[in-house]
Amino acid sequence: MPKVGMEPIRRKQLIEATQACIGEVGFGATTVQSIAKRAGVSAGIIAHYFGNKMGLLEATMRELLQQLKVELIERLGSSATPRDRINAIIDTNFSKTQTNALAAKTWLAFWSGAMHEPAFAQLQRINKMRLHSNLKYSFKELGLADPDHAAASLSALIDGLWLRGALSPEGIDVDRCVDLCCRHAELLIQAG
Fold first, then answer.
1. pLDDT tens across 50-61, in order?
2. Cα dihedral across residues 111, 104, 153, 192: positive or negative
């Protein structure tokens, strides 16, 4: 039986080990045993907390999504205008917690799994709706005639640039991606 109070420590340790293993060998080659070895625990601990490898990846993605949410709330709190909010949304989606090499590889494994795993697909729908809704609200505040279209356009650009960067050997060029997204947002605003 695990020691009382160890669960949050073990969960964090296992989530970090999962990202490290995915970063090193990819999700397909990552095993419960390799995660357990990297974390310095038994495979039984993973089964106890997460059930299996898919449960552990789901928990890892929930952690990345929670970090994204917390960062966004923080940045939106200091955003005075709708334009500031749009920039905060862009910056958050390209923040270090979401674009570092291990996070990027974990996101790619998650997106791949979302095509076949209902729990992953549900998390992806929530993430997609959250991004779209936040952008739409800000574009609506700016008086755009079609804030839904503007939000869909900028969301697609954010996701596309993120995906291209994550798949490139150099990784995500955060400054360039943020610049392109901010320019696109400005064009959408000017077009009204």
1. 888 888 888 988
2. positive
- Please, which residues have CB within 8 angstroms of residue 72's CB and are 6 or more apart in sequence? 88, 89, 92, 134
State the Cα–Cα distance between residues 131 and 151, nearest whole angstrom. Answer: 8
Residue 39 lies in a domain: no
The answer to whether the beta carbons of residues 3 and 17 sit under 8 Å apart is no
For 136-170, write each residue's pLDDT tens digit: 999 999 999 999 999 999 999 999 999 999 999 99
Closest among 41, 32, 53 to 10, alpha carbons compared:
41
137: phi then psi, degrees, rounded to nearest 5: -60, -45
Q: For residue 71, give its domain range.
A: 59-191
How many structural domains comprise the chain? 1
